[in-house]
Design brief:
This protein is an alpha/beta fold. It has one domain. It is globular, with a radius of gyration of 12 Å. 22% of the residues are buried.
Length: 86
């Protein structure tokens, strides 16, 4: 089973990432985890696991990391996929 990490650092990223999470869950493509800083966790609720810990994100061992921004920690394994809204 594939593992996907959604690396969110800005509030505008929620809607961009939600569409990916919905499709991964709908198609049973694998499991997701959301990296979300503590200060953003109160703004949006996800059904999938959420972490603000870099160590937990690394331990999750994602196959792909979806990044709707410009920055992602290089210690997180997996293919980095930069995602933008249009």
């Amino acid at each position: 089973m594939r593992r996907y990490l959604h690396f969110i650092t800005k509030p505008y990223s929620f809607s961009v990432i939600q569409a990916l999470i919905d499709e991964i869950n709908r198609g049973n493509w694998g499991e997701s985890m959301i990296y979300l800083p503590d200060e953003l966790q109160r703004l949006y609720q996800f059904k999938d696991p959420v972490t603000s810990s870099l160590a937990e994100a690394v331990d999750f061992q994602p196959d792909a990391v979806f990044v709707p921004g410009n920055i992602v920690h290089d210690k997180i394994p997996g293919l980095k996929v930069q995602v933008f809204h249009g």
